[in-house]
What does this fold into?
Amino acid sequence: MQIKNICCIGAGYVGGPTMAVIALKCPHISVIVVDSNPDKIKAWNGPLDSLPVYEPGLAEVVGEARGRNLFFSDDIPGNIEKAEMIFMAVNTPTKTEGEGAGMAADLRYIKACAKDIAKYSKSNKIIVEKSTLPVRTAEKIKEILEENSSKIHFEILSNPEFLAEGTAIQDLFKSDRILIGGDETESGQNAVQALVDIYTNWIPKEKILTTNVWSSELAKLASNAMLAQRISSINSLSVLCEKTGANIDELSKAIGMDHRIGPHFLKASVGFGGSCFQKDILNLVYLCKYYGLDEVAEYWHQVVKINDYQKNRFAEKITDNFDGDLNGKQIAILGWAFKANTNDSRESAAIYVAEKLFDEGATLKIYDPMVTKTSILNDVQFYWKEIPDSIEVQNRIHIEMSLEDACEKVDAIAILTGWEAFKTKNFNYDRFQSKIFDGRGIIKEAINIYTLGK
Ligand code: UDX
Ligand code: UDX
It folds into this structure.
């Protein structure tokens, strides 16, 4: 079966860039991205320098394909009906209430999507899970589809996204692997082949791995858990280095040169952030508990606990440096995004460090080159346990428009995102005579030590 029309539900960090690249590489396929948020669609159709997602190289890809075979639309029913293949790329946050709150994935958007697909489909369709989902979600999706639509045949594939934000376009152009899970039935295998045929337009065949649906769903959770585990492992050693006089950068280099271990994801930090790691590990923990595997659950849970410990430890280090009292102190928060080259701040360590410093009485001067003032203030409302009132915000949270302004007259500078512009080779911190706390290569002594950019 040759696919001519693709529809993707969800125009976010995953749906947007992924579909843009599919459209670029497959000019013979019409790719339409829909979203329940019409403002987002408007922005995707707007100027290339203010697309809703910032990602190096994305604007160029959208610029080339948009209007040719890449479209952004708010007509969900019409585009579901027209497509032979539908990608689900809606968000799957951690549940905040009900059974599994704080751990299990909230599947309400996925379920809503499945209901819409059942309602508006008039012909057989291949449904592709792009979002990260707990293993066996395909079963639930199938149930919803079959309950709500009788004559139509739906084939469900799992095709998890492995792109990392900030390098999404490069990751999509040159993926390590493309994973496609499908049913072992004949129609399942035909659907798998239809998706393989799309990717072979630019990905070498040997990099496309086909498996059963459950392996594919679980592989995504497990990959993220393994990556996060490496960061928590090195971070757990950073504190031991500080106690013993060992140097964490030297340690990580020495460990990483063992080719069985490798150098990647061994950089000590103030803690990992982003929309995936914490959410996916908690989801894995919940799954293990659900199957009665308490020891396995506890093993993975520790990865998240070390991450919380690291974020706290960094904030405490700053506070301790001022003898436990930040009242009347001004602190520059450099970076709000969860890592460089993205405007995404979900679960960013900066949010938690800033919260702790603010709670201790500090006045914050926040600067990030890509995260907007509105997003920063929204994050404060959404993530902080105690939400400051508008007067406190006005008096003690200042969003600055330049690096220079943020560092002016502060008692301390906390570097929380690894933006190039923050590196000492690109910015002279000396003239501000403040204490520097570098979270992107966690500090040894905390005072006037630059580990970045060396
Ligand atoms: C993705 C994946 O889907 C998630 O599973 C993974 O773990 C993290 O990355 P992401 O693209 O980053 O999510 O999320 P987001 O940028 O929030 O995009 C989701 C989009 O879906 C939003 O634009 C939202 O408006 C849209 N949406 C959500 C719908 O169109 N319909 C819905 O019912 C819910
Ligand atoms: C991750 C996975 O890498 C990707 O494959 C998956 O599909 C989605 O989740 P992402 O969250 O976009 O991607 O970013 P990633 O580059 O993995 O970084 C996650 C966090 O770990 C960031 O906060 C980063 O700063 C931190 N990190 C990364 C470290 O602290 N040390 C490292 O050595 C590497």
Notes: DSSP finds 16 helices and 13 strands in the chain. Residues 9-15, 35-37, 40, 89-92, 109, 112-113, 131-132, 275-276 surround uridine-5'-diphosphate-xylopyranose (ligand 1) (CB under 6 Å). The first strand starts at residue 5 and ends at 9. The CA atoms of residues 355 and 384 lie 6 Å apart.
